[in-house]
Structure formats: structure tokens, C-alpha cells
Design goal:
This protein is mostly helical. It contains five helices and two strands; from the N terminus they run E-E-H-H-H-H-H. Helix 1 (40-77) runs antiparallel to helix 2, helix 1 runs parallel beside helix 3 and helix 4 packs antiparallel against helix 5 (172-208). The radius of gyration is 29 Å and the shape is elongated.
Length: 215
């Protein structure tokens, strides 16, 4: 009678990232168990690849958002003859938004890709629709102020998320450019917040005087 053969479990990683453990039981009956394990390096590579993919999608999405911002603000600027300070600040932010879009194009190019024309077109259309939607309201300027304040905070969150993704894949070029855009969005959000009270009161005054109050 053949004595049992004891083969201890094999530990470690082979070239295929799998561990094969063989154990003899009785006689010529053998059981082979394949236990797949991943190299730590393989897991890190997979995470990095996924983070890069998400980062690229995020950059494209934000590029489309900047196009939407330009369309939205340009329509508002043309109707703010009674609010000159707001008109001038929006004109400035339109130029900032265009530059932010250019920065995003630069980052996408550094990653070997480009913006999404389809997303850009759809978001620009959405910006026009949003502007038109408020243009019929008697309190258009107030509603636009609320919407712009919310929009700026959306962009702030988006840029913060992109900065985390840039750091996760060690995309050094992204840090400086994204931080610059983030600061611009934060400055615009702060300005709008400071104007909410004054804009509301001016709207009330113009309404009480029987003047065109919305724009």
C-alpha cells in the first residue's frame, strides 16, 4: 500500500498571478485547487487605469459645463442694462470660463485625448434653454442670481473632484491649471453671494417705481 504523500500548501505569487496548491489524499486520488490571487502591483495598476478613465471623463464633462456657462452668461449679459455692475462682472467671468475651457483642452491633450463635441453641443443647448426659461419671468434677474449661485457651487465641487483624481494618477499638469480655475469659480461664487441682497432690493425698488424690474 502506497503511503500518503503530504504536499504542503504553496505560498507566494507566480507569473500568472495565481497560486496552485496540490495536496495528495489517499492512494492515487489527487485534488488540485487553483486559487487566483492578484499581485499588489496588478491591483494598483488597475486602480490607476480606472482613475485615469474617470478623470478623462470628468475633464470632458467640465469642458462641456464651461461651454454651457458661456452660453448662459452671454444671454444674461445682453439683458442686464439696468444692472451694470452685474453685467461687467459677468462679462469678466465669460472670459474666465473660456480660458477654463482652454485649460481643460490642454489637460486632455496632455493625456492623449480631446474634448467631447457631442457633450459640448448638448450642454451649450442646455445653457440657452435655461436662459430663455428665466427671460419670461418678471423677476428674471433674481431668479438668474439664484441659478448662477448654484451653478458656481456645482463647478466648485467639480473642480475639487478633478483635483483629487489628478493627484491619484500623479498628473502634475492638472494640479496648477485646475487650482487656478477653482479659485476663479470660488471668487465668482463669493461675488454673487455678496450681491444677493443688493440685487433683491434693487428689484423691489424698480418694481415699486413701476419700472422694468426683471432686467
Amino acid at each position: 500500500m502506497r503511503a500518503p504523500v503530504n504536499i504542503p500548501p504553496v505560498t507566494g505569487f507566480d507569473a500568472d498571478a495565481a497560486l496552485v496548491r496540490e495536496r495528495a489524499e489517499m492512494g492515487e486520488h489527487f485534488a488540485t485547487i487553483v486559487i487566483p490571487l492578484r499581485h499588489p502591483e496588478t491591483m494598483e495598476s488597475t486602480m490607476a487605469d480606472k482613475a485615469k478613465d474617470i478623470y478623462i471623463v470628468g475633464l470632458r464633462n467640465q469642458h462641456a459645463v464651461e461651454n454651457q456657462a458661456v452660453e448662459l452668461l452671454e444671454r444674461q449679459v445682453g439683458r442686464l442694462e439696468n444692472y451694470p455692475e452685474m453685467r461687467e462682472r459677468m462679462r469678466l467671468h465669460i472670459e474666465e470660463s473660456k480660458e477654463q475651457a482652454r485649460r481643460l483642452e490642454e489637460l486632455l491633450s496632455s493625456l492623449g485625448t480631446s474634448e467631447s463635441t457631442l457633450k459640448d453641443t448638448m450642454m451649450s443647448l442646455a445653457g440657452n434653454v435655461m436662459a430663455i426659461g428665466h427671460s419670461t419671468a418678471t423677476d428674471e434677474v433674481v431668479k438668474n442670481t439664484f441659478a448662477n449661485f448654484a451653478f458656481e457651487h456645482y463647478e466648485i465641487a467639480a473642480y475639487k473632484s478633478l483635483l483629487v483624481l489628478a493627484a491619484s494618477i500623479s498628473h502634475a499638469a492638472g494640479k496648477s491649471l485646475l487650482e487656478t480655475s477653482l479659485k476663479e469659480e470660488q471668487a465668482m461664487a463669493d461675488w454673487i453671494e455678496q450681491q444677493i441682497g443688493a440685487t433683491t432690493l434693487r428689484y423691489v425698488e424698480r418694481t415699486a417705481a413701476g419700472e422694468t424690474a426683471g432686467v
